[in-house]
Structure formats: structure tokens, C-alpha cells
Amino acid sequence: MATKLVAPSILSADFANLEKELKAIAAAGADWVHVDVMDGHFVPNITIGIPVVRALKKVSSLPLDVHLMIEKPERYIEDFVKAGSDYLTIHVEATDKPREVLRKIRSLGARAGLTLRPGTPIEEILPLLDEVDLVLVMTVEPGFGGQSFLHDQVEKIKQLKVVRMQKNLNYLIEVDGGVNDKTVNACCDADVLVAGSYIFNGDYTKTIGLLKS
Ligand code: DX5
Ligand code: ZN
Question: pTM of the entire structure?
Fold first, then answer.
């Protein structure tokens, strides 16, 4: 099995010391930094926005993997790319024109990601897979860190792997929500693992190392 990329979600980091946290996860072997952007509309929670992404970019040696949980992401795509997003992921439910938005992300020079809520059937994203560099499978309801892994979403990971092979596509498959030492084995078909509470509530080197192995 290929080694996984690990993307710690800074939602569970110490927000008063983000530079220190980024350096610590990089030293502990993290591959990307997962940044959860929430607008209080698409999800009930509000987190961080464009100025914070810009600030993180200045001090991050790792790619920024920005997960937009916002309504009508098309309004802010350009700002998030200019702020330094390397991967920019939108929710299929958040826009009427996902294909257009994904193309715009790529045309601005970033990698385009697409994701879906646990309740959204995978069929909603299948026609769009030729437009993406990354597909994110949500294994919790988006909005909060620290929730339990939804095992019934694992089938989506498997289906995405099959479709990738059948259609000769090359997107990365990422899993986000409730990933820890107990649930990581269920994610064996994923390429990138996002974990927030598991990493930041533990010893970063140990937790990241365990997810990678
Ligand atoms: C949830 C976010 C996740 C979350 C993961 O809406 O997209 O990235 O921070 O946190 P844990 O790993 O604690 O479930
Ligand atoms: Zn996320």
C-alpha cells in the first residue's frame, strides 16, 4: 500500500499560535495543511477567511489545502487562490455551476477539488470528475471538528477509486472527518488523510506517523 499524505486540519490547532503550529506539524511529517473555511450559512459554524489563508501562506512550507464550506463559492475563488491556496475544494451542493467554478480554479493556477456532504449521492459528482485534481469524501457532516467517523461513507472512497481506474483519471482521493488510529484502516483506498482533533490533541509526530503507516 502506498504511503498516505497527511493533511492536519488546523481547525483543532491553537489559533493564537498558528505559525508555531504549522512549523510543528511540518517537523512532525505533515504533507499538507488543511484549512477549513466556514461561512455560517452553508454550515452553522464560522471559522476563518481570506486574510488568514494569506497569513498562513507566508509562514507555511507545506501546500495549503483549502476546504470551502461556503455558499456560492464562485464569489471568492479568485481571492482564495490569490491568497495562496494550492488546492481549493468546493462543495457540489454550494453552487449551481460547479463545472464553471472548478474550471475557474484551474485557470487561476490552483488545483481544483470537489466534495459532497455525507447525505449527497456520489452520482452528483460523477459527471464532474474530469474537471478535478482532488475529490474529498466527507466522513462527518461538515461544520465541526471532533465528530465520529461515518463508516457508511467508505463505499464512496471505493467507488471513486474504481471510477478513476475505469475512466483513466488521476484525481487524488482525500478523506475528512473522524480520522484517527481506530478509523484509518477504513480509509485504505484514500490517498490523503485529513485529521484535526486526533493530531492536535496528541503527540504530532506519533499521530502523523501512525496515519502514514
Ligand atoms: C469538518 C472539517 C474537518 C474537521 C476534521 O467540517 O471539514 O476538516 O476539521 O476534524 P476531525 O479530524 O476532528 O474530525
Ligand atoms: Zn475539512
Answer: 0.98
Cα–Cα dist 38/36, whole Å: 6
pLDDT tens per residue, range 92-139: 999 999 999 999 999 999 999 999 999 999 999 999 999 999 999 999
- 127: how many CB neighbours lie within 10 A of its CB? 10
Our answer to whether residue 36 is catalytic in this structure is yes
Ligand at minimal distance from the CA of 38 is: 1
Containing structural domain, residue 197: 5-212
DSSP type of residue 148: P
Q: Is 177 in the pocket of ligand 1 (CB under 6 A)?
A: yes
CB 191 within 8 A of CB 174: yes
* Domain total of the chain: 1
204: domain CATH number is 3.20.20.70
The C-alpha torsion from 164 through 183 and 151 to 188, rounded to 10°, is: 20
